[in-house]
Amino acid sequence: MKHPLRKVLSLTLAAVTAVSMSVTAFADEPYDSYNYDNWQDAVPSQSAYMVEKTVTGKEMKLDRLSTPGDELYISENASASLSDSKDMCVDKKRKELWIADTGNNRILRLNAETFEVTGCYYSVANSSADNFNVPLGIYVSDSEELGQQVVYIADSENFRVVKAIVKDAKTLECVIEYTHPQDPLYTANTFIPKKVLADRAENVYAIVNSVNSGSCIFSREGKFKGFYGANRVAVTAAVIAQRIWRAIASEAQLEGMTRNVPIEYTNFDIDEDGFIYTVSEIANETRTDSVKKLNPAGYNIWNNAKGNEYIFGDMQGQQWDPVARKNHQSVLTDVDIGDGGLINVLDFETGRVFQYDKECNLICIFGTKNSTADQRGAMANPFAVESFGSRVFVLDAAKSKCDITVFEVTQFGRYLHDAFSLYDDGRYVEAKAAWDQVIKRDGGYTLAYVGLGKAALNSEEYSKALKYFKTAYDQDDYDKAFKYAREAFLRDHFVAIIVIIGLLIALLIVKNILKKKGIKLIKPKTKLATSGAARARARKAVKDEED
Amino acid sequence: MYEFTPMGWVKHVVFHPVEGFEDLRWKKQGSMKIALVIVFLLFVVMVADRQLTGFQFNTAYVKVFNVIPLLVQSVVYFFTWVIGNWALCTLFDGEGTLKKICIYSAYALVPYIFCSALSIFISNFIVQEERIWMTAIYYLGLIWSVVLMIQAMKAVHQYSFPKTIVSMIFTLVAMLLILFLAILLLSLFQQLYVFGYSIYTEISYRIRG
To answer: Regarding the domain delimited by A424-492, which CATH topology (the fold level of the hierarchy) does it fall under?
Structure first.
């Protein structure tokens, strides 16, 4: 090692090795991306989203709240971190992210791009309660009537939903409060709102604790209007048995029986067209009702009874997780409708976000869970999901480490979104380029083959379409393509087919005529000869031999 | 009265469900070779059903192909039927010998095999809307075979019709019993094997050590 050049060389080599190793160890998520094929088997896939960063109170600059002299200064002991936060909402127009910081009894307003705090609210001016008390839900929208931004807060322990306008970075002013409905329809003793939503007409929807007939609707003026979009009772053996018992039970017995009530949905979101999407925690018992898209009358548009099959969350029901050593049962906890109708569904149990297109095709799955949440991309108690632009935020409400995980779409995901948006519009041929890019990155992506197959079918390349559908194992579309392919085949070869059939008929006729006249084209064996002429000929042959 | 080749006899019994088997018995015809070929064809048609049915109709899980269940469902089931029927009917005044039961049962399967093959064939040319043709042909074969099987059992044992039906139902029970015992025996032998093997390893370790 005397030579200086050698020294330099070995040093550089060591440095290069170190750098390259650290790079390979860096670029990965703490989980393996997967997707489902047409057999509903999990297959490995590429990551459509990757963790960009984790945003905690520090990144949000929440210490400004307790820094005297700062414009956001609240008090010396204002917490500089999130605590047990349960809900978020994005105002897409103003690029704001609102968080219900439940444990700290406050509402935070962040810049949705930099995640820096721009507002902090502990109370609503001119309202019945002094401070927020366990605010569980938040919704932000624009009021056409007031012509400005309004915030709806489900202030659970103050038993109210409050609608407020934003005065400045520290003050909200009350517009109206929605409290315990004094209505014979409302039978619950308490009014503990958990989540809140408002439609374009500013009707307010509130999911209320222990009310299972749907969410409460209030008119803009604060009048209770009824319930909306209840789940159905899942038909299980126990329910059927009870139905029978109820039919024969006496009045006294009936009183003692528990009633079959549907599962209340846990969360909802509203899309640009005003459809409300709900999500219920028990996905496997009520597969249809786990995620619903409700029309204004409160009926589910995605109804499995109408022929399609909509499945949300993990497809195979209970799944054994060898790492956690337990069975997973999807607990879908939040739904978010993103740009272009993308549906993000968050599974509390596995910490996974399932992204669907507006026709409920599964696009991708990302995120995972571990108990400590000390890995980027792993959540401990994921409670809320929101999307903004190409990013998806997951709010992790662990007691000690409450943070937001920010997922950014990858190139693969971008191609997927392009492809799906064209595919859903029925522009199959235009989607072809995007599907090709998808397949380049993930050759096992089932829906890409369906998309390519439909493109081929639309451009009348039937054999190609059949091949693609076969690859995707999409029998229904294959059947459709086969029908067209068969028609085309018959059309193209019509003359040949007619000629062949004609020839066959002619052959049959000729054969019959020959049989009638007793002419045999092939000389039969003597033994089996039956017709008179043949027998005569056979006799003659025998005679000849004797001669 | 009837002079047929062995294959001619097969054709005769298939197309004369009422008297075919009686004729077969009267003329002391029926070939064991042909019967075995028919059973083999049953197996072939089962494999074909899984592998060659048109894509739009094929519900089989294509990721794995295991021939053993198909073999069991065709060949093993058939011989269990034969043995079960023979064991039962010898006790109940049946006149059939094991060989005859085997031959007659196999002959009765011909329509099922033929119609299955035909329905598999046409499934490659039709779409799901026209599925009824496939189903119709398949069930035609199945029902025809069931009728032939009843007639075959009736002829081979010289039973009355009700007795035939009862004997066939009990044959199914006997089949279940045989298969149950077979599985029991199999697992027993497996344990015996494991036991023997562990003794062997134990001894071999001792000798080495």
So the answer is: 1.25.40
